[in-house]
């Protein structure tokens, strides 16, 4: 029996989606073109998006808490973005020359983010993380990186190490092992990755000291989503910054996801002054983008007037005018007031969910900040990846929770951060809370 045959009629997978999936299976190894597409077991195929909602190919409307993995801060089809993009398409979509639009987006971002002076655009978060690490290497002359266990930073080999360990292989708390993501990763890659546990102040300090002479950078995410969307403990980032300064290591903050935490970004919010900040997702207004922003001295590796770059960085579609214009339209609409409104809605959803959990006396907990939240099948909110890691029973409970939301026409990401968009309002928030209350109160027929 297929999993979804067991769920009630409302919200069951559409037959058109099933048909499309069958076609997809003929051309893609697993039926789709990215591993992150949710399948239960059939993905739902989308016809279009409108504001806070997605419409599937059978015309069913669902509140979207995924927003393409937190990218669409204004939801779908945001008019300033569509207008800007439509006007550009008639004029050409990519050139081997720069356009004025890249300068406008660069000025907007550098004007908002303290501590960075120069920026370079690429096409994805993965590419931005890769070039940021290469920049740290070119600047320091060292090959290694330190990274937080369980945090996701895209698909560059070095940051994939330590991303997906399990209790059976991740090693002792004092010395987390550099577990490769897949078989066949060159051993040399793992040798140059030091895995740190988030919020482990003493352990991380010791491990950085041990590896210091080979470390180019410490890669952090101010609130790593896959590692639990957990908040930094007081003192953790201070220790990282002090250690970095002591040993001449750069701090590289991956804000691909968490830049949406505030007008000045996540590092500013948590009081960190990184040498390099990596951006992506929201800054492209729904189009492919990534960016590396950094201190002037560090960014010189990409070149300076009259000087050859020590790190040549190109990219056929880098800074293409479509992404630049879309990003500018989306980000200029993200005023401080809009960030404030999102923050208030985020507090409303986290408070409402926490109250529902209190009412049932535990089982779940909530983490997150600003417009982001994660529901954990744990009575105590996790503080790092090992605590957030789900047992098979907990994972099954979360799948049932996601399925419950799906049956109530709300798309809740499973095992990743859920996010709000400016297209939502308090009514949407209250619907999310009510849906969770319903599940928590055990009224849901699929729970048993
Ligand atoms: N870093 C973080 C923190 C991310 O969340 C992601 C994407 N989820 C990436 C890097 C990679 O970005 P992309 O998918 O655009 O390559």
The gist of it:
Helices cover 38% and strands 14% of the residues.
CATH topology of the largest domain: Aspartate Aminotransferase, domain 2
Q: Could you say how many structural domains there are in total?
A: 2
User: Uncertain segments of ≥5 residues (pLDDT<50)?
Assistant: 1-10
| The CATH architecture of the largest domain | 3-Layer(aba) Sandwich
Overall average residue pLDDT: 94
- Spatial arrangement of strands, main beta sheet: 4-10-9-8-7-5-6
The CATH class label of the largest domain is Alpha Beta
Bound compounds, each kind once, are: 4'-deoxy-4'-aminopyridoxal-5'-phosphate
Helix content: 25-40%
Q: What proportion strand? A: 5-15%
Total number of helices: 16
Q: Terminal Cα separation, in Å?
A: 17 Å
Say how many strands there are: 14
Structural class: alpha/beta
Task: Give the C-alpha Rg.
Answer: 22 Å
Describe this structure in words.
With 448 residues, the protein is α/β, with parallel strands linked by helices. The chain has two domains: 44-73 and 336-447, Aspartate Aminotransferase, domain 1, CATH 3.90.1150.10; 79-333, Type I PLP-dependent aspartate aminotransferase-like (Major domain) (Aspartate Aminotransferase, domain 2, 3-Layer(aba) Sandwich). Helix content is 38%, strand content 14%. It has 16 helices and 14 strands. The protein has helices at residues 15-27, 67-70, 79-89, 100-112, 125-140, 157-160, 187-191, 201-211, 236-247, 266-269, 296-299, 321-333, 336-360, 385-388, 392-407, 426-440, and strands spanning 46-50, 53-56, 61-64, 118-122, 144-148, 193-196, 215-220, 250-254, 276-280, 290-294, 365-369, 372-376, 410-411, 418-419. It has a seven-stranded mixed beta sheet, sandwiched between helices. It has a four-stranded mixed beta sheet with strand order 1-2-3-13. β7 (215-220), α9 (236-247) and β8 form a beta-alpha-beta unit. It starts with 14 loop residues before the first helix and ends in an 8-residue tail after the last helix. 48% of the residues are buried. Residues 1-10 have low confidence and may be disordered. The structure holds 4'-deoxy-4'-aminopyridoxal-5'-phosphate (PMP). 4'-deoxy-4'-aminopyridoxal-5'-phosphate (PMP) binds at residues 69, 124-126, 129, 152-154, 221, 225, 254, 256-257, 280.
């Amino acid at each position: 029996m297929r999993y979804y045959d067991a769920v009630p009629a409302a919200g069951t997978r559409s037959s058109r989606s099933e048909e499309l999936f069958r076609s997809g299976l003929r051309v893609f190894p697993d039926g789709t073109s990215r591993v992150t597409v949710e399948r239960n077991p059939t993905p739902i195929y989308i016809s279009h998006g409108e504001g806070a909602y997605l419409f599937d190919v059978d015309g069913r409307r669902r509140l979207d808490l995924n927003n393409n993995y937190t990218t669409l801060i204004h939801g779908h089809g945001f008019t300033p973005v569509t207008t800007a993009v439509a006007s550009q398409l008639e004029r050409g979509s990519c050139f081997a020359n720069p356009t004025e639009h890249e300068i406008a987006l660069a000025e907007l971002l550098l004007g908002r983010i303290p501590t960075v002076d120069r920026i370079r655009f690429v096409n994805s978060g993965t590419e931005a993380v890769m070039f940021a690490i290469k920049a740290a290497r070119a600047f320091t002359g060292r090959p290694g990186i330190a990274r937080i266990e369980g945090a996701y930073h895209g698909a560059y080999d070095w940051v994939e190490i330590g991303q997906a360990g399990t209790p059976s292989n991740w090693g002792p708390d004092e010395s987390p092992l550099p577990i490769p993501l897949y078989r066949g990763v060159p051993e040399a890659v793992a040798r140059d990755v030091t895995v740190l546990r988030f919020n482990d102040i003493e352990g991380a300090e010791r491990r950085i000291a041990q590896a210091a002479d080979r470390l180019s950078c410490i890669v952090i995410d101010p609130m790593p989503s896959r590692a639990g969307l957990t908040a930094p403990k007081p003192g953790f980032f201070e220790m990282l910054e002090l250690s970095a300064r002591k040993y001449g290591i750069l701090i590289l903050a991956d804000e691909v996801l968490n830049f949406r935490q505030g007008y000045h970004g996540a590092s500013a919010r948590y009081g960190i002054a990184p040498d390099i900040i990596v951006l992506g997702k929201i800054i492209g207004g729904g189009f492919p983008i990534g960016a590396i922003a950094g201190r002037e001295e560090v960014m010189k590796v990409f070149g300076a007037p009259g000087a050859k770059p020590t790190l040549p960085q190109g990219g056929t579609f880098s800074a293409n005018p479509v992404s630049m214009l879309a990003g500018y339209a989306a980000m200029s609409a993200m005023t401080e007031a809009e960030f404030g409104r999102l923050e208030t809605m985020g507090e409303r959803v986290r408070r409402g969910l926490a109250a529902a959990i209190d009412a049932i006396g535990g089982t779940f907990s909530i983490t997150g900040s600003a417009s982001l939240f994660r529901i954990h099948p744990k009575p105590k909110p996790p503080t790092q990846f090992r605590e957030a890691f789900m047992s098979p029973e907990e994972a099954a409970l979360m799948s049932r929770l996601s399925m419950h939301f799906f049956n109530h026409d709300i798309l809740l990401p499973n095992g990743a951060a859920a996010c709000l968009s400016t297209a939502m309002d308090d009514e949407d928030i209250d619907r999310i809370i009510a849906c969770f209350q319903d599940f928590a109160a055990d009224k849901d027929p699929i729970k048993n």
